[in-house]
């Protein structure tokens, strides 16, 4: 595995090396280029995995596809059924859905070293408008996708709709939530993590099987997982229609990992090889920026900032890559999430521990300090509010979410409070439950000010945690105004200058591929007044 990744890094560096060498190559080997453009694709549809747009900015976005005529091929030498060198594709971008008014066209490269994925980072487009695009190779054409640029930073914008999602376990259910979110025409969708699950379900009911039947842990098996998810028609349509802004959580790599520490506290050097494979597969399947987010061995940058007119600035965090290892390892094999008491686990309270890493934390504070937006969203993977639970009658806290890193959370909330960040809101995933939370400087002091408001989306399909124990804990957590772990779905936000309306949308049954949708709860935050208010 490692030698494959090293090889990939080298070839990428060569590609980045400069337009001059690329055009020399074009001149030197025209026959090869022609041959790849004129592929006849007898072995299947190279665009089986569809198209995606994402990482939108005011003047551009990233367009994505990955060539895979045999999308679930598990031959490591022929990813997606592809062999041979890089493939040149033609791309077209238009201002209309019928692709009649072309504004850009050209050639772009599907890289062999990255599973024949293509990341086309476009700039110089008009702000705040939709575009349509497609790729072609020989006689094969991709579906037409829709992309859009963001309204330019600082320009007046009086409304915006976006959605956020997390935790789509293919085995646990169908992706009706993705289908209904597409139908709501959001400007973009935030993916907050657990986009795939590396695991194989062994205990609970499943509606469909991860096709290879193995836990993903290598580049071919992670690739296989993403490919299978992208074959889902509801997810494929979401990506073709709605720009994606993506971060990750644990299951893109391994349950409850933290930086170089697996949930079993395995040899970190070995785990980093697995992480490198997982991060590369994530890169290969997501519309992320090809330079900024390019994986370098086990490192890949996903945290990012998005400014949408003068209305909202989004800080998208990476809550996994830089975190301190999970507190209080319990042998055997318990380095991941578990409940700990204060007396039993002083490590959890150590002020030197970090959830997001000190560099990302400084970057976040800089964003917040410089933001001129009316609203400031922090979009990230796991529950931020404190959740005090009883274990054997003693107050306990879960070590895998922000409760595992309370000093970092306290610094963040203190910073938001002291620097008077305008209308701070937190979007979270991971816990497979809807929650509406007041975030307070001191969660245990009723008089402590509310600093920000957190709305946790539930899962698209992953099973929720047991309902009753957490409901029984709610009286000990008065800042949590709503909890529901029995429903699957997503969150849609309708934002105006003076208020944010948050709708928790729940599917009728994630085991029904034709599930209907309903609004479970609606909340409205008024500008200048943090805190949960049911509308
Ligand atoms: Fe999850
Ligand atoms: Ca998770």
* Biggest β-sheet: strands ordered side by side in the sheet: 12-13-15-18-20-19-21
Helix coverage percent:
10-25%
Q: Please tell me the overall pLDDT.
A: 92
Q: Total number of helical segments?
A: 10
What structural class do helix, strand and pairing data support? alpha+beta
Strand count: 24
Q: Output the CATH class name.
A: Alpha Beta
What is the assigned CATH homologous superfamily?
A: Alkaline phosphatase D (PhoD)
Q: At the third CATH level, what is the topology name?
A: Purple Acid Phosphatase, chain A, domain 2
Stretches with pLDDT under 50, minimum 5 residues? 1-38
The biggest sheet, with number of strands, parallel, antiparallel or mixed sense and barrel status, is: 7 strands, mixed
Q: Tell me the domain tally.
A: 1
Q: Which architecture does the CATH hierarchy give at level 2?
A: 4-Layer Sandwich
> Radius of gyration, Cα only, in angstroms?
23 Å
Give the overall shape.
globular
Q: Give the termini separation.
A: 53 Å
* Ligands bound, unique: fe (iii) ion, calcium ion
């Amino acid at each position: 595995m490692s030698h494959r990744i090293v090889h990939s890094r080298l070839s990428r560096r060569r590609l980045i090396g400069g337009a001059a060498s690329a055009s020399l190559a074009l001149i030197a080997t025209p026959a090869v280029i022609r041959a790849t453009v004129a592929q006849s694709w007898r072995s299947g549809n190279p665009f089986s995995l569809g198209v995606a747009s994402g990482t939108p900015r005011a003047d551009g976005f990233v367009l994505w596809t990955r060539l895979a005529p045999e999308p679930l091929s598990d031959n490591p030498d022929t990813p997606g059924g592809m062999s041979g060198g890089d493939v040149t594709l033609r791309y077209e971008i238009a201002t209309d859905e019928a692709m009649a008014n072309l504004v850009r066209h050209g050639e772009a490269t599907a890289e062999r070293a990255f599973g024949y994925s293509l990341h086309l980072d476009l700039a110089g487009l008009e702000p705040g408008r939709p575009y349509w695009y497609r790729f072609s190779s020989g006689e094969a054409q991709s579906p037409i996708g829709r992309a859009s640029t963001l309204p330019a930073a600082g320009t007046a914008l009086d409304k915006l709709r976006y959605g956020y999602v997390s935790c789509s376990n293919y085995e646990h259910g169908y992706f009706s939530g993705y289908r209904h979110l597409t139908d709501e025409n959001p400007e973009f969708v935030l993916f907050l993590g657990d986009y795939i699950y590396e695991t194989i379900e062994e205990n609970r009911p499943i509606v469909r099987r991860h096709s290879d039947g193995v836990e993903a842990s290598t580049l071919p098996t992670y690739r296989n997982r993403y490919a299978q998810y992208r074959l889902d028609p509801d997810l494929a349509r979401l990506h073709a229609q709605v720009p994606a802004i993506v971060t990750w959580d644990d299951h893109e790599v391994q349950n409850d990992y933290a930086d170089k520490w697996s949930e079993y506290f395995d040899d970190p050097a070995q785990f980093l090889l697995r992480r490198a494979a997982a991060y590369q597969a994530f890169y290969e399947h997501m519309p992320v920026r090809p330079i900024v987010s390019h994986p370098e061995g086990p490192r890949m940058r996903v945290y990012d900032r998005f400014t949408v007119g003068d209305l909202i600035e989004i800080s998208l965090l990476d809550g996994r890559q830089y975190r301190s290892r999970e507190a209080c390892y319990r042998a055997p094999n318990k380095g991941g999430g578990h409940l700990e008491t204060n007396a039993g686990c002083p490590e959890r309270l150590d002020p030197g521990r970090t959830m997001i890493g000190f560099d990302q934390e400084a970057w976040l504070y800089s964003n917040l300090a410089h933001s001129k937006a009316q609203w400031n969203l922090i979009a990230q993977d796991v529950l931020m509010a404190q959740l005090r639970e009883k274990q054997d009658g003693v107050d306990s806290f879960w070590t895998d979410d922000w409760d595992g890193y309370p000093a970092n959370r306290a610094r963040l909330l203190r910073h938001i409070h002291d620097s008077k960040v305008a209308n701070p809101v937190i979007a979270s995933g991971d816990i497979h439950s809807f929650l509406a939370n007041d975030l307070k400087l001191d969660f245990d002091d009723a008089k402590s000010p509310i600093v920000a408001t957190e709305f946790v989306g539930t899962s698209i399909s992953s099973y929720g945690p047991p309902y009753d124990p957490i409901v029984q804990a709610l009286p000990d957590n008065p800042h949590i105004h709503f909890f529901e772990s029995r429903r699957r779905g997503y969150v849609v936000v309708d934002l105006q200058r003076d208020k944010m309306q948050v709708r928790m949308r729940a599917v009728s049954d994630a085991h029904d591929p034709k599930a209907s949708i309903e609004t479970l709860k609606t909340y409205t935050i008024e500008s200048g007044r943090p805190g949960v208010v049911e509308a």
